[in-house]
Amino acid sequence: MFGTESSLSMFLNTLTPKFYVALTGTSSLISGLILIFEWWYFRKYGTSFIEQVSVSHLRPLLGGVDNSSSNNSNSSNGDSDSNRQSVSECKVWRNPLNLFRGAEYNRYTWVTGREPLTYYDMNLSAQDHQTFFTCDSDHLRPADAIMQKAWRERNPQARISAAHEALEINEIRSRVEVPLIASSTIWEIKLLPKCATAYILLAEEEATTIAEAEKLFKQALKAGDGCYRRSQQLQHHGSQYEAQHRRDTNVLVYIKRRLAMCARRLGRTREAVKMMRDLMKEFPLLSMFNIHENLLEALLELQAYADVQAVLAKYDDISLPKSATICYTAALLKARAVSDKFSPEAASRRGLSTAEMNAVEAIHRAVEFNPHVPKYLLEMKSLILPPEHILKRGDSEAIAYAFFHLAHWKRVEGALNLLHCTWEGTFRMIPYPLEKGHLFYPYPICTETADRELLPSFHEVSVYPKKELPFFILFTAGLCSFTAMLALLTHQFPELMGVFAKAFLSTLFAPLNFIMEKVESILPSSLWHQLTRI
């Protein structure tokens, strides 16, 4: 026993201060490298590398049970339901208030040198155009065949050139001589309709102002209306004619909606409202364009709050999909009734009235649906141009909503103050939003990944709920800081730190020495001598 103690004391006495400096410095370096790697991995993948490895590889070795395998037979139906829910929640939607590429997005690029649209977003738009503006019989008409290829083209200049080519070909082939009277030598020139989709592409991408885009859309309307009327008469003659009519309907609705948006941009808001209402009456089943959201924004600009309430009564229904526009507009109308007289101090003294409680509940409902919006409305985060596609309940939808509706909230006196005082209370009702919701389904976990694809790289994507730093990052940060401090102190005060190190090691081995003394006192000396020799 005494030999062990003497060898330990001799070992400690032989350690020089340089050894302690090297030991602590090396420990600090290694823990620092681990910390840097862990932080990089967390920022890129949203999880701790050490934690992921331990869960994936060490838990099975230690006898952990894989819940997915143990509950496989019980959760097969539930998995299919949750997968369907996840797909529907993470579906990317066309932004009903999307800007004009040539007149607005490109002007932003010319001024700032930044690209406001991602390749993923523009690729989704190209797919939408192919779905809405093409059909299987396009190869029968040369202009439509050219436009079918143009929608697939990635280069903007190539698309614009193809649109001009389609118009030129159609112009050459449109002048057809037909007899005015049978068996007569009197002839007339009959003008065939021009290519509406070519005008759409030029209005969207070549026009540099909204006024130019409106002129091109009016030409597109003239061509598209003629095609729609002809295909409407032939739609029951076969599946080919039915597909053409469906395509022509999509083209006509798109043109009229964009014309209404041009009028709204140019300040003719009442005209835009009339065009939107007429369009919704003429095509009530085409809800995929979400024209009612354009109508709500225009009515708010006119401060026609009664009409806004009437639109909400029709579309804010439990059976219809929600959106930030629906939820936050409903909250704005209820806040408008009480916001001008609302005071948090007075409300804390006397309590909330029924109207104030309704307004607060509407704000909580809206914030639960999309928790990213308040920071943009309260100007806690800077806005960027909205993308052409949005993810409902995501940061992209919040940007698209706040970009157009911030002015409407500012116009209602006290509305932003009420929002500022009450919106964070939503999170107390849903402490675990990824597991259980209050008024809506649990918040989807896929929004961050999809928003990073939709939003430009210079924008800091809003993440909800905020991811807490993993334990191993905090642990390695503490370890790195502690060992670095020890290395610094050992380098500055080598003798003193040597004394502390020896005292620490002696204290650390004290319980072991105590146990060995007890064992030596219990066992016979001869037996202990034999064990030590072994």
TrEMBL record:
Feature: compositional bias, Low complexity: 66-80
Domain of life: Eukaryota
Location of the region described as Disordered in the Swiss-Prot/TrEMBL record: 66-86
Localization of this protein: Membrane
Transmembrane segments: 20-42, 469-490
GO cellular component, one term: membrane
Membrane disposition: Multi-pass membrane protein
Family annotation (InterPro entries): ST7 (IPR007311)
Alphabetized UniProt keyword annotations: Membrane, Transmembrane, Transmembrane helix
Record-stated family: Belongs to the ST7 family.
Cross-referenced PANTHER family: SUPPRESSION OF TUMORIGENICITY 7 (PTHR12745), SUPPRESSOR OF TUMORIGENICITY 7 PROTEIN (PTHR12745:SF8)
Name listed for the protein in its UniProt record: Suppression of tumorigenicity 7
Organism whose genome encodes this protein: Peromyscus maniculatus bairdii
